[in-house]
Amino acid sequence: MEGTRVKILNDIIDWIKDQSAQKIFWLTGWAGTGKSAIAWTICSRATNDPEVVLGGSFFFSRSASSAAQRDVRCMIPTLAQVLARQSDLFSQALVDELTRDPDILHKQISVQVEKLLSRPLFALSSSPVPIVFVIDALDECSGHSTGDGDLDDDGTHRIVSDMLDALVSISNSNVYLPVKFLVTSRPETYIRDTSVSDHELSKVLRLQTVDMKQVTADIRLYIATKLLSTPRLRARFTTSDADMLAEQCDGLFIVATTALKYTFERGNDAAATRFRTMLNASRNGLSTGAAVPLDRMYTLILEDAARVNEPGGDELAAMLKLLAILLSNRMLLSVVALAELLGRPIDETRATLSRLHAVVHVPEDDGDPGLRILHASFGDYISRRAPRHIQVSNPDSHEISARAAIRVMGERLHFNIAQSHSSYEPNASTTASGITLSLEYACTQWVYHVVSLQDPSALDGMLRDIFCPRLLFWLEVMSMLGQVQRAAAMLYFIGVTVRQESSQWYHWSLMRRVGADAGTIAVFPRCQLICRFVPRGDRAECTTHIPFGAPICEQERRDLQDVCPIMFRAGLR
After folding, report:
1. Chain mean pLDDT for the chain
2. Which has fewest Cβ within 10 Å: 45, 104, 309, 351?
């Protein structure tokens, strides 16, 4: 907001324009200290400052709808592409590099930094205007190995470390490059242990070390602007209200933004009452720990939303189940899709979400995919530090999501979901209207949740009774979604992940054999039961909708009848 963080913002702009300054500015701080707001403001200022060029920006987010916005491997190509659109010189140099090495996108990130950024930037070495790239929330880039191409945490951390070291190495170039990189993140160990924390190679600002009086003054200005913005509000709030809340924020902007969202989420008429209730709940026993004021705020919001003092407790259980799915989800859901995964009416789901606006972004249209947790600190709180009665651990979140996904597949997967007139009809001529967002989520993400459980065999019964009989129906949906290769990888991945002593190991062994042949998905290599899924990229040429009369041997028939009995009842012989 205008008038806040003035010194920090001016220092960053001065650093960008200083040719002799380090190439990297690492802005680090705890969750909620305002790093992303500063990054956004710098982007805005650079766009409007004729003495600075915003080369590109990349804002990582755990809750992003696009997997690419979580994947560190997409960052360098994105920044190069954005700058190429602005500079013909850079664009031509980049084309030359890609011509010499067309496989660069599949190489190590240090090589990408050199060939997609460093070398093409030589073409701009005489530019009088500095170029700044902004990289926000680097600690929120993707993790978890799921068989669909994502990285595990260790792999992500290695790439981040290599990338930061490669960016810092640009400072050692023999040719002057008019480029700067502003990087924001939490002070995670794998980031601190790189060259980015070396004060000789990078400029480092730790927001937790900024003068607390100045931070509190900025927060107070932000709060006062919101509370006293209209004559009507000024009749209900005073400057003392802004002072009291600012003091309790303990230097965290996220406490102020969350508190104000809570205050106004039920309209201006109820705002004053909710504000004073919140202050009274936060005033007693407030310590100076960085997480304490935010945790108290989150606790108040959840207990108020769940109406924990009312008899029954059904609303609390429903709310925690809803939050579990949002915290562990892999793609943005709509209110309708969330309701279907929960097995609740849409209006009840919308009512629960309406009480969580302070921590959850809820789209206005029930059909729009856009549900997301507003800040990563809330996920940390509810999974680790929340009181036991409102805590949802990560394993619990994944189990709730896995059960919801398997149940939706059981309810919605059926024979010939594409309504094809022929087993060999191309996908392009069929319709995916029967594949709802909840079914798409269930079909594409169930493996991720199952393998994230401490004991995947806990879901053996559901998978045996619900998924296994509908295996071919699931493959049909995956083909319609253009996810043939991913389907093979998912089956192979779960086949090698579940414990061998599982009572259903026989079924998973069969599924591993299904996924082992990624080129032609067939239940067995000699049995082209599911037509020839000939992938073209990630699209299959056609989805076979269970061709009758497929030649299979007696042993394969028995195996398939054991795994997919519904297919045989549907007419497969």
Report:
1. 80
2. 309
Same domain, 308 and 330: yes
Please identify, among 333, 358, 392, the residue that sits at the C-terminal boundary of a domain.
Answer: 392
Q: What is the CATH number of the domain that holds 123?
A: 3.40.50
Run of H or E residues at 24: strand 24-28
pTM: 0.62
Most confident of 130-144, 233-247, 417-431, 531-545: 233-247
State the CB neighbour count (10 A cutoff) for residue 252.
27
Domain that holds residue 219: 211-287
Hey, which bits of 49-119 come out as E strands? Answer: 53-59
Give the 3-state secondary structure of residue 536: strand
**Whether 136 and 77 share a structural domain:** yes
Question: How many degrees, rounded to 5, is the angle at CA 389 between CA 387 and CA 390?
Answer: 70
On the question of pLDDT at 399 being above 60, the answer is yes
Reference 524, options 484, 481, 496, 563; nearest CA is 563
Tens digit of pLDDT for each residue in 320-352? 999 999 999 888 999 999 999 999 999 999 989
In terms of Cα–Cα distance, which of 109, 105, 52 is closest to 81?
105
**Could you count the other beta carbons within 10 Å of the beta carbon of residue 480?**
23
What's the pLDDT at 41? 95
Do 246 and 193 belong together in one domain?
no
Domain boundary among 287, 313, 342: 287
